[in-house]
Amino acid sequence: MNLPEKLIFVRHYKAHKAGSKPVAKYKETRLSDSQFPLRQEGIAQAKVVRSWLDVVFPEIDGYLCPEYVRSSQSAGLTFPDISWSVDPNLDERSHGTGFVSFFRQALKSSIFLYHTRSVESMVDVVDRWQKVKARLAAEYADSKCVLAFSHGEYIAGVQCDLERISRAWYDQHYKELILPHGGILVYSRYSHGDSGDLQPEYVKKRVVDLFGRKDTGWLDISGVTPGPATAVAGSTLVDRAWQFSIFEE
To answer: How far is 165 from 186, CA to CA, in rounded Å?
Structure first.
């Protein structure tokens, strides 16, 4: 499947959530999880992310966002001059009646597989991501760089697919894949050897937290055998062990 040369995911900025004191006024309108807006702190994050993206990835030529208010609002505030393509397949994993009850039940079995009529499993999330991948291949294959806003567990699902992360590893370490609000995940195909041709099998990733001042640098994730990921030439591998052995059951 021919994907864009670079694919950037940004987790939505800090938002109000059900049960928090600042959103008492929203309870009267019975907003669903998909309708809660950004907090003032989240609104302020947009300028920081925009400034960084303009410098590091000025070649962005595709823009996708979910229907959820906090993500579509994040996208619109970051690039208000762009007409965003809204795709509900980028929406957050459905947690049913709420996060607390979801995790209370999911921890008894499997965070990855747990589902009910109103709760999506991560299998469902990855299935939705496959539809986005097909769209990227059909509509953005010639794009240099596509930017997509989304949500914590959804972006974790993307990582499960593109990095071949197993269910067993996810159940134990899923928190390591959840980006902070405003966190940035980048995947990029790159050339290898002297030919200079871009080979799809060579892929690197970078995780950036502008607000926590953390940056992994570019990490090669092209390997298929167990072992530590290697830093791409010119970048630094921080003290976080990205092990390919995590892909094994």
So the answer is: 17
What does the pLDDT look like over 63-116, one tens digit per residue?
999 999 999 999 999 999 999 999 999 998 876 655 545 555 655 667 777 667
The one-character DSSP state at 38 is: B
pLDDT of residue 32: 65
Burial of 124 (C-beta count, 10 Å sphere; 0-12/13-18/19+): middle
Segment 133-187, tens digit of pLDDT? 999 999 998 899 999 999 999 999 999 888 888 888 888 888 899 999 999 999 9
Instruction: Name the residue among 17, 63, 21 with its Cα closest to residue 38.
Output: 17
- Number of helices (H), then strands (E), belonging to the chain: the values are 7, 9
The answer, yes or no, to whether residue 247 has pLDDT greater than 80, is: no
Alpha-carbon torsion, ordered 66, 141, 131, 121, to 10 deg: -70
CATH of domain 6-193+207-216: 3.40.50.1240
In sequence order, the 6+-apart residues with CB closer than 8 A to the CB of 143 are 4, 5, 61, 62
What is the longest distance spanned by two Cα atoms in the chain?
A: 63
Nearest alpha-carbon partner for 56 in 11, 8, 5: 8
**SS3 state of residue 230:** strand
At residue 186, the 3 state secondary structure works out as strand
Write the DSSP symbol of residue 209. Answer: E
Is there a contact between 219 and 230 (Cβ–Cβ < 8 Å)? yes
| Beta strands at 230-231 and 198-209: parallel, antiparallel or unpaired | unpaired
